[in-house]
Description:
alpha/beta, seven-stranded mixed sheet, Rossmann fold
Amino acid sequence: MSTYTSINLIARPKPGPITSELFEVVEKEIPTAGPGQILVKQTHMSLDPAMIGWMSPDPESYIPPVALGEVMRASGLGTVVESNHPDFAVGDMVRGMTGMTEYILTDGQGLNTVPAGLDAETVLAVFALPGLTATQGLYGFGDPKAGETLVVSGAAGSVGSIVGQLAKADGLNVIGVAGDDEKCNWIVDTLGFDGAINYKTDDIPAKLDELAPKGVDVYFENTGGPIQKHVFDRMNAHGRIVVCGMIADYTSAEPSPGPNWIPLIKKRITVRGFAMPDHYGDIPALLEKLTPYVMGGKIKFRTHVLEGLESAIDGLNLFFTGGNRGKLIVKL
Amino acid sequence: MSTYTSINLIARPKPGPITSELFEVVEKEIPTAGPGQILVKQTHMSLDPAMIGWMSPDPESYIPPVALGEVMRASGLGTVVESNHPDFAVGDMVRGMTGMTEYILTDGQGLNTVPAGLDAETVLAVFALPGLTATQGLYGFGDPKAGETLVVSGAAGSVGSIVGQLAKADGLNVIGVAGDDEKCNWIVDTLGFDGAINYKTDDIPAKLDELAPKGVDVYFENTGGPIQKHVFDRMNAHGRIVVCGMIADYTSAEPSPGPNWIPLIKKRITVRGFAMPDHYGDIPALLEKLTPYVMGGKIKFRTHVLEGLESAIDGLNLFFTGGNRGKLIVKL
């Protein structure tokens, strides 16, 4: 009898790092596909900052939290190893919300076959949540125009790096904010951003004045934290702020206050929060928008690969420490 | 030789009340209309919260501040007493940015003739900045839908009272926030709001829970202050916040912080600041939207009339104290 491993969420996170006490690692017997079912062996699992939110008990969130005792939610990619389903053949590469588990027995709902010619890392780093989120946020709400200035926080992250490259390809002045010099160098030297700010060591106001002398038109917010106020203070009239992530505040006991709203009136600014589940119906259109940039070589990425399912638990803490170098993927 | 009075702005406001030291009251000789000119005798001048902003030196505001030494900016209504202009006849009632002055010598640019049948108070209280602002903010950005809940602060004010009545006519559950019981009674008993909160004496969270049991879909913000956080905390998914005024913070030395942005993501909220000068081109469409509500008897108003030009100076402080009862108008 062969077994496989799954990870269940069994407690809610508290302020501070994610610990193994929140999870239960379970061994189960590998099942067999029944009528209409497929069995998928997950090969690559994505780690995303949104997962921190899914673990939290906030009933108002855009997606129900993971129930305690259930397999922790995650997106991933795997190979069909058994199929009694007409739409899937053994050997197909499929993607979807796989969860933190080595095997998935499913009727196939919510899983999509990956087109031939795409490797797993490109799928998870670009044509999945990161690229879709970047495309929806930037074009759905950011309204970028050539010649404008865009600031993106979490700029070396999976979403931020794509946002910046899309905007750069569109002719904007693009400034990225990241947490160490290696990331700052990467987004400028490799991704082609116009400038970078190390929010931990740079004089943020001085650096913003230097890199954004004409002010900021689009602020793509992935992190929260100390950068927010300084960018907010430099928004131009009719500026657009797209709020995609606030990782700096997700597990703090007392979230830091935001800016006073008077400048929203004086400068007629729009601040818009969004989350991808609202836009799943638009995925075909988003892919249509994104694909030419990728095919045109405008979107570079790098992956930070962890090995083995259980590495995912501590891996989530990399979103807090900023220790990852590229899209976080767990190889199974 | 006859003279008339004008009021020039000669200093910038500091935190605290508006004082007479900011202004210079000057006497001038009444001029005569030259070729192409008209002479207008102002009869009713409007006092609006926006004037506080126009006095401030913020170069980033949506409209240049009033230059020191110039007539203080104001909108108003008057009678043409001399005309050498084909579009204006003696006796016409005209409206526009008249300024704090008893007489205006002008080529007529920016002035519009008021249609017969409208009295001066209706023009200034409804078919001027208050009504246009309410209509633009509510329908341009608030996207109100029957059955939803709307909270409006400054609900007994010139803009807020119209916002609430429009929303009520559209079938929303309308809650107004005001600063004393008389205003709260007026918006419920006379204007037909579903509920009112006295932000100075009520237990705001308890009252909001009672009046908005299903949460808040549209928040029309006219004031800032302690109410903001509590309404923000109760916003529903896909809520819209329209930021029109922040009078509570306009002259404070240190504006109070706003809410953290995490809920903007979790609930996909849009916060939009606006100012009417961006929408002057839309005034015909706004009037077309607003007029049927007025003609249908859906929009009630009251005026708080001050007598004499110089009453305007201290009159501006009524926006801070909330001492006015209805649209502030200075009768000349």
